[in-house]
Amino acid sequence: MTKRVMLIEEDTAEMKGMTHSIGAALAELKRAGWSVPAGMVVTVDGCRACCTRSGPLSGEMMEELGSAVRYLEQQTGMNFGDPDDPLLLGVQSDLAVTASSAEACRIPYVGLNDSTVEGFARQTGNRLYALQCYLAALQHYGQMVLDIPDLSAEHSIDSKRFVSTEIELELLIAEWKERIQVKSGYAFPQDVNLQLQAAVRAVFASPDKMSDRTEWSKEKEKHIENETAGAPVLIQSFLHGNYTDYKGKGSVYTRNPETGQKGIIGDYLPARSRSGMLHALSYLKRNNPARYTDLEKICIDLEKRTGAVQEIMYTVDSGSIWIHSVKLAYVSPIAAVRSAVDMVHEGLIDQEDALLRLKPEDLAVCMNQEMPELKIVLEWADEVKGLSILAKVEHAADAVQARAWGAEGIGLCTTETMLLCPSRKPFVQKMIMANTEADRRRGMERLLPMQQSDIESLFEMMDGRPVTIQLFDFPLHELFPGPNALEAHEEELDAVLSEIHEMQLEALFRAAVKSIREGLWVRPEIMIPHVEHVNEMQKMRDLVDHVAEQVLGEERRHCVYKVGVSIASSRSPLMAAQLARCADFISFAVDEMTQSTFGWTLEEADEQEHFYGHISHTEYHALHKLDIEEISSLVKTAAAQGRVRRPHLKTSISGELIEDSRSIAFIHDIGLDAVCCRPEQIPGFRLAAAQAVIRALRNDRKDANEDVSTIA
Hints:
Helix 19 runs antiparallel to helix 20. The two termini are 26 Å apart. The protein is 51% helix and 14% strand. The protein contains 29 helices and 18 strands.
């Protein structure tokens, strides 16, 4: 029979295998010899058994839970529900979420009732403290079990420990009992077993009630394979005894969560603090150096075991440090990078683990901090990744930024942005509206040196790296001031566009000649936009070769250029094999492909997102996030067909929809060569590309091990 309740003390494979579990972390510390309050973990199956029955639990579940409670009684020397010597339990989610989320998913002091509270008062020698705990238990029970609001600070245990009178607390306790009676129709249960059962049910169901649902769902998605499964519930015994033996409590990080600096940092609340204000951890170091040293040792030991920054909740008594909770700390992007690098140097983790734990989007926060640790991380990523990370630029200044952040070249330069900047747009309009071909040619001659200068800057900045120039791709009719002017020139627009392309090619190859003669190595790649037929591509290829022959002259042997095509519609991938006959590379414009696949404009997509999100109660992204399922088959098929025709066909992808690690993993898995992104995205994409390789290798190793195990 599958165990549904596991003791923290049990040295079982099931407990060891519970990743991201507070209970499993506490079990690890317990095995290492540190002081941990006795406790248990109710598994997801066990929680479901509690939730499927509104009345008493089944005999099997009652026996498992009861047996675990009896073990806790033996360990603590107290009895659950005993009016003279009561055992109290804390019930919380076992999933290591943020502090605010954890606080919202717990019920403390389960086991207090009208009689046990008096026994608890005698145990601690402090009735005021006992009444405060009873009030806290009622408040959390009301909020978690019955959705009663108001866990206000003025009634919380810590803030009123030394300022409330017993009479005030008794009145508040009576008030909360009445609230529970009114809301539920029954009195607060005096049967402690019913309290425990209700607490487990409430904590298991708490993600649906809590305000910080987004954070919870993120953690759940990361740590639990079955999204509908819920999370286990942790039950721990409360430490108490002679109240005078209790020294204080607090929380500590194994490293600074803001900077990543090595060394413990945290807070401490002395038991006798009348203000209720937290002190820095240095207070504990000054007043109880032995316990502070114990805390340091625990933190060092925990980092050696986990290889990660941890957050610990602890209690201090006269003889030891007791650890109540251990979970992965939430650290700033800067701290994440610094701690990962330091832990590699300290031998706690390897470079692969360091790369996997970082978030690509967090690197953007670190880029302006001039962090040497960031440079090291990106060097590690470059050693592993397979994808080339290219930049998408619109101006020469973008290329400067792209190189600074590690671009391996320019994957897309959109020349229309250059030609239609405010200082040049009037020249373009005047050229298009020219009445004679001679006037239009003169207009082209004015634009040519401007375009040549732009491209020279790109060659200089990318010395030796590929520079992909996409020919002018802009609806010319939008440049006309009114409908009459458009009608007069509409028939000439195709000819004008062809002349613009010819001018751009001349500018490009002139720039190449000048750069080569200045000692630079140029690698121009000319991209033809939005080709729908192979004949169109062949025509443009012939034009490129013709202009190159005319302009390059003897420098042609030093300028090995490539000609490629941008695929931007859902139909174009079907033509990939034919296009590859005259294309050296293919670039997939994933934004336009997605829009073409859905058949929606961006405005229509917004409406569809709202509609589908409403009816399905889910987040619906439409054209605002890469639809891997739809697009992957198109891109994968096109790349494969193109390589059948041209085995060394270079393939790349670009678009604003490529924004996360999942997208980069998809690009890696289908075997593309490069991804093109904005300059500021380059560091994150370098990291994500490395992560894709590492995860793929680990999955392969896992599959191989499983195959060997099966054969054995």
